[in-house]
Amino acid sequence: MAAIPLSTRLSYGVGQLSDGVKQSAFSTFLFFYYNQVLGLSGSLAGSAALLALLVDAITDPMVGQLSDRLQSRWGRRHPFMLAGAVPFGIAIFILFSPPADLSQAALFAWMLGGAISVRLMLTLFYVPHLSLGAELAKDYYGRTSLIGYRVFFAYAGILVTSVVGFSLFFPPSEMYPNGMLNKASYPGFGLFCGMMGSTAMLLSVAGTWRSIPELSKPVITGNESTAWLAFIDVFRTLKLDSFRVLFAAILMFATLAGVSQTLMIYVATYVFEFKPGHLAGLASSVLIGIIFASWVAQGLSARFDKKRALRICVITGGFFAFSPQILYFGGFLGQIDDALKFTLVFSVNGISQIFFIAYMILLDSMLSDSIDEHQLDCGKREEGLFFAARSFATKASYGLGSFLAGIGLDIIEFPKSATPETVPVEAIIKLAILSGPVLLFFFIATVLISNRYPMSEARHREIMGAIAQREKLEFKD
Fold first, then answer.
1. Is 323 exposed, middle or buried (0-12, 13-18, 19+ CB in 10 A)?
2. For a Cys-Cys bond, which of 24, 75, 230, 426 suits 61, CB 3.0-4.6 Å?
3. Mean pLDDT rounded to a whole number for the chain
4. pTM reported for the whole predicted model
5. pLDDT tens digits, 198-222
6. Which domains does the chain have, with CATH numbers?
7. Where are the alpha helices (DSSP H) in 137-167?
8. Cα–Cα distance for residue pair 35/265, rounded to 1 Å
9. pLDDT tens-digit profile of 247-270?
C-alpha cells in the first residue's frame, strides 16, 4: 500500500489543533473564568458544560451519518469540515465575551448557549475529520502513524493555548498578582483561540482536498434510518464487542482527564502553591508528551500488540500522574524548595503525558480496526457513525468531568476569587483529596476496561483478507 505523502499527513493532523484549542480553552480557562472571575456557582458552571452535551448527543451521530451518506463532487467529509471552520472561531470568541453585570441565570444561559455553539461548530469539522483519517490509512500500523500526527497537533493546540494564555493574556501584574483573575483579558484570549482554531481547520481542508478522489464512496442500501434519528444508531455500534470496549475505555479515561484538567489551575495554585508565572511552564510539560508519544505508541505496538501496548501506557502514565499527590500526602512536597518542587511536578507530569497521549493514539488506531470488522459484518464502511460515537464519548466525558469538578468544588465549599493565603487549610486538603484519591476510581476503571479489548493483530489480518477477497469477487461479478 502506497505511503501517505508527508504533506497530506501534516495537513490532516493540523486540523486537530482546533480540538486542542477547544479542550484547553474549556477545561483550563472557561470554568475558572465563569466560576472564579464572573462568580457563577460551580454547580451551575458544571451543569452548563454537561447540558451542552445533550446537543452533542444528537448532532455528533447525525453529522457522522450525514457525512457517511453525502454524495458530492467534493467528497463525503470536506463539505462539513469547511462549514464548521469560520463559525467555530466566532462562537468561541462570543463565549469568552459575555456582557457585564449579568445575573446568575443570565450568566448560566450565556455560558450554556456559547458552549453549545462552539461544540456544534466543532462537531461539523471534528467528526468528519476523524472519519477521514480511517479512509486515508487502511493498514494496521499505518493508522497508528497517521493518528500520531493528529494527536500530536491536538496536544500542540492544548500546549500553545495554555502557554500563550498564561504568559501573554494572564501574566501577573501589580493589580492582579494572579493574572487569571483579570476579567478584561478574557475577550482577547477568546479571539486568539477562535483565530487559531479556524485557521487550523481551513489549512486541514485545503491540504487534504486533493485526496478526495481516492476516498471511499458512500454505499446506500435504502434501509438507512433518517439522519435526524442517527443518535439511535450509536447503540448499533455498541453491538460490536471490540468497539464497545473502546467506547467504555474512552468514556472513563476522558472523564478522568476532564476532572483533572478542570482542577489543574486550582491544584497548581492552592495545593502545590505555584506562583502564576509557573503555570505556563507547568502547562508546557505536555510538550514532552507531544514529542515522544507517537514513537512510544508505534514502538510498543510493534514490539507487542496494541492491546498489551495500551495496558502498558495507561498503567505507566497513571503511576507518574498520581505521584505528586502521593508525595503531597506523604509530606515530602512541603519539605523542598519551590524550584525543586516545580521541577519534580513538571517532570512527572511530562512523563505521564507521554504515555497518556500514546494511549489515545492506540485507542483511535484500534477503533479504526473495529470499523474494518464492522465492514466485514455489514458490507459497508460507516466511519462517520463510529467516530461520532467516539467523539460523543470523549466530549461527554470531558463535560461530565467539568460537572463533577464543579459539584466537588461546591461540596468542599472552595472559596471564590481566593488567593492561596486566604484559603483554609481544610479546603486545600479536601481539594487534594478530590484531585487524587477520588480520581483513582476512574483510573482503575480505565485499566480494567482496556484489558478486555478482544482483537489481535492476527484477527485483524484475517478481517482485511476476507474484505479483500469479497471485494475481488464483487469486482468480477
1. middle
2. 230
3. 85
4. 0.73
5. 999 999 999 988 887 777 665 555 5
6. 14-208+228-476 (1.20.1250.20)
7. 140-164
8. 12
9. 889 888 888 888 887 888 888 888
Distance CA 206, CA 300 (A): 33
> Which of 183-192, 309-318, 331-340 is least confident?
331-340
Residue with cell 492491546: 307
DSSP, collapsed to helix, strand or coil, labels residue 404 as helix
pLDDT average, residue stretch 445-473: 84
pLDDT of residue 141: 64
Task: Give the number of C-alpha atoms closer than 13 A to the C-alpha of residue 223, restricted to the C-beta side.
Answer: 4
Which DSSP letter does residue 403 get? Answer: H
Q: Are 201 and 84 in contact (CB under 8 A)?
A: yes
Angle at 328 between CA 327 and CA 331, to 5 degrees: 85
Nearest to 118 by CA among 78, 59, 77, 64: 59
Of the candidates 111, 121, 106, which has an alpha carbon nearest to the alpha carbon of residue 33?
Answer: 111
Query: 30: closest CA among 390, 344, 401?
Result: 401
pLDDT digits (tens, 9 = 90+) for 26-76: 878 998 899 889 989 888 988 888 888 778 777 877 888 788 777 777 878
3-state secondary structure (DSSP) of residue 171:
coil
Query: How far, in Å, are 241, 251, 254 from residue 293 at the CA level?
Result: 27, 21, 17
Enter the C-alpha cell of residue 218: 458512500
Long-range CB contacts for residues 466-469, cutoff 8 Å, separation at least 24: 466/376, 467/372, 467/375, 467/376
Asked whether the CA dihedral 256, 262, 263, 265 is positive or negative, the reply is positive
> Can you read off the three cell numbers belonging to residue 327?
508525595
CB-based contacts of 444, cutoff 8 Å, min separation 6 = none
The amino acid occupying position 288 is: I
Q: Which of 14, 294, 19 is nearest to 150 (CA)?
A: 14
The residue ranking higher by pLDDT, 215 or 186, is 186
Selection from 157, 158, 165, 172 nearest residue 187 by Cα: 165
Q: How far apart are CA 449 and CA 368, in angstroms?
A: 18
Q: Is 222 left (phi over 0), alpha (psi -120 to 50) or beta?
A: left
**Residue position matching grid coordinates 453491538:** 239
Q: Answer yes or no: is pLDDT of 191 > 80.
A: yes
Phi and psi at residue 139, in whole multiples of 5°? -95, 165
The Cα 401–Cα 263 span in angstroms is 10
